[in-house]
Amino acid sequence: MARIIPPMQNSRSSESREGESAIGQKKRWGVLLIVHGSPDEKGNVHALKTFERLRNLFDESFPIEIGFIEHALPEVNVSLARLVSHAEGVALVPLLLFDAGHSKSDMAEYAEQAQRDHPGLHLIRDWAFGTDQTVVSILLDLLPPRDPQIRETLILIGRGSLDPNANASLFYQGRRLWERRKGNLPHFSFISVTEPRLSDVLETLDPKAQDRIVLLPYFLFEGVLMDRIRALGESFRLRTGFKGEVVVTPPFGDHPLLLDHLARRIRRLLKLGRTPLPKWPVLNLEGESVSDAIPGKERSTDDNAD
Question: Residue 300: what pLDDT?
């Protein structure tokens, strides 16, 4: 049976010793980068190019693969099998912004399937990185400079999720962004699944009350939803006769700061040799058990440092 290394404990000294011990026992580790995938092929091409740039940050002999949850190839289980052919331990690393269904449920299912398919395999996993401070630094880099003379409305846009913690995380990051950029507080919106929708937020804006509207998608890659955001921005301009500037910032999955940050997270995960505690609380409103991670994993409300 595959050995799933349990989560880190609270003692920093024990984390270090156990992590070093776990890694020290392995002859070879591999990393599987898990990406959602897009029905728009340009989004998958963007993800694959990003993966190549990330892989270049490691030694060329280091085994690292990419696997798509849906819409694109290679599938996660296919890439996992390729890694297992030359690695005794695999780190599952989600290239996902927030810990919603794919991170909480799909990742656990991949681990369980690996237990069945690859007896003796050691597994550790990471969590989504979208609440890391580095992402706020990237948003600041993408935004135009704030000018007190320019009347600006900034709208932060998430994909939207059925998971309340994932949706709340967008507001968390937006507040951190404001603390560093100041100006007017950003508006918050979603392009899918939940409210407030971007289209509704745009409806509330007075085109005569601002000089610049900045649409800030919290997205990693190009795709259908990025196209929808750009179309809504252009529709606002045409419908209202807005004479100012409409800025749509690009997705940031391939931003150099993010690539460096992901590489550091991967190296830290392998050094520790254990699955870290998640950065989100588990809401269990009906008193039922919640499967939120690798089997046997403790639940935690810890908000780990970046």
Answer: 34
Q: What share of the chain is helix, strand, coil (3-state, %, to 5)?
A: 40, 15, 45
Reference 158, options 144, 177, 141; nearest CA is: 177
Q: Are residues 190 and 146 in the same domain?
A: yes
Q: How far, in Å, CA of 301 to CA of 306, rounded? A: 15
* pTM (whole model) above 0.85: no
Q: Which two tokens stand for residue 286?
A: 């009906």
Contact 213, 187 (CB under 8 A): no
How far apart, in Å, do the first and last CA atoms of the chain sit? Answer: 33
Per-residue model confidence as pLDDT tens digits over 176-185? 999 999 999 9
243 and 149 inside one domain: yes
Give the pair of three-digit tokens for residue 25: 């026992």
Residue 248, both tokens: 């749509």
Residue given tokens 């949706």 in the structure block: 167
The answer to whether the CB of 19 falls within 8 A of the CB of 272 is yes
Q: What is the CATH number of the domain that holds 81?
A: 3.40.50.1400
